[in-house]
């Protein structure tokens, strides 16, 4: 990714013009280099207005996620060292696992399209080009593997809050790995680990978020997208969402490393959509109906089954 593109993008303002000469002087390059880079940003989808004697003005970001803006955000991140961006890939999870040996730092993999996207229990996750955000986060916590249940709870809250803040919606969390909006699934995430002797060396968290309308999704009555809910794609600023997303991931990941679940338990319960509802629960090959009662301080779900028994659920598939 061109450093000059990132530097110019960080200087462009949505509120006022900045002259090409000012940009050139600030960055120590020629006016011609500025002009060429502006054209490259326009090709990436940025709406940049150019007015004689005024300079350049950023009107609108691209409709879809910009690799340049993403690189700028990663450069400002205190958590991630770099990002790999793919136009298309079989799976961001596969790419993330492939890259594990290349660095000991935390990093991100992002794709516009996945041809072999998958969710929990190896279910296929439709990932058509430029309709969603497909991300794998690679984190290096060096913690006991038993802590992964808490990780999912902190991360689900980070994702839910990011969607709410960016798009003015009110998402809910379906334990343990789904985000819902208007009673339909808008996001799912898959958490996998690499561990040794009971200690996690790496968490690889794959996240798929439905952003724009897609005809293939019509076949799935339980799925929706941000655009389906809020309307015109002109209201959707994906770059702005990614800024909030990265901020919240960093905040809640640091809280996960340093705080017990009890400190976010009430916040999580307020976002949960499973309490007081009849649930179909499948675990280790068996299925039963139950009502969710509570979530304990270890992150385990407590339910009341049809026979009146209180069960503790650690890992299961839940249907509303």
What would you note in describing this structure?
This protein is an alpha+beta fold and 320 residues long. The protein has three domains: 58 residues, Arc Repressor Mutant, subunit A (Orthogonal Bundle), CATH 1.10.10.10; 203 residues, 2-Layer Sandwich (BirA Bifunctional Protein, domain 2), CATH 3.30.930.10; 46 residues, SH3 type barrels (Roll). 32% of the residues lie in helices and 28% in strands. It is built from nine helices and 14 strands. The protein has a seven-stranded mixed sheet with strand order 3-4-5-9-8-7-6, sandwiched between helices. The protein has a five-stranded antiparallel sheet with strand order 13-12-11-10-14, with no helix packed on it. The longest helix has 21 residues. It is elongated. Its EC number is 6.3.4.15. Keywords: ATP-binding, Biotin, DNA-binding, Ligase, Nucleotide-binding, Repressor, Transcription, Transcription regulation. Belongs to the biotin--protein ligase family. It is an enzyme of class 6 (ligase).
Strand order of the largest sheet: 3-4-5-9-8-7-6
- Tell me the name of the CATH homologous superfamily of the largest domain: Bira Bifunctional Protein, Domain 2
Tell me the strand percentage band: 25-35%
Radius of gyration: 22 Å
CATH C-level label of the largest domain: Alpha Beta
- The total number of structural domains is 3
Strand tally is: 14
What structural category do the secondary elements indicate?
A: alpha+beta
Main β-sheet description: 7 strands, mixed
- Using the alpha-carbon principal axes, give the shape: elongated
Distance linking N and C termini: 44 Å
Keywords: ATP-binding, Biotin, DNA-binding, Ligase, Nucleotide-binding, Repressor, Transcription, Transcription regulation
Pfam families: BPL_C, BPL_LplA_LipB, HTH_11
Family: Belongs to the biotin--protein ligase family.
EC number: 6.3.4.15
